[in-house]
Structure prediction request, 138 residues.
Amino acid sequence: MTTIQKLIEHLSTYPKDAVVAYALWGADDVIQRASERGLLCSKEQAEEIIDRVDRKQDASLGISWATLDCYIDEANLQPLKTVNDYLYCETCEEFVDLWKYGSVADAGHEGCKTRPVTEEELKNCIQDCIEDGCFEEE
Ligand SMILES: [Zn+2]
Prediction:
């Protein structure tokens, strides 16, 4: 794996005034991208992904967000949320992001008739959270 330490050693072989083009991608970028896509990614998984990106990089394409997406897809990460993280409130006729509140009462639906979301509805709930940027502050 390429580490910052190895990179520093490598860079020290260049003249200090050499002009270069520079971009640095790290495990944090993978974790951020995965969460924006509603996927759960551990530090270890992110390190494995960034290592693959590094070893397999194509100089004519470079590394981009699209590159990270390809490797994130290959990694088969689990969704950040499950059906237990959302509810459908039949009384209010709306979906509830239960994970933000912790309880039905805190979500403001105490006494409402609620039901769990289906797998299909879960995908839409996660998609809405992705579009609203809900996972980015986590
Ligand atoms: Zn309600």
Observations:
- The first strand starts at residue 87 and ends at 89.
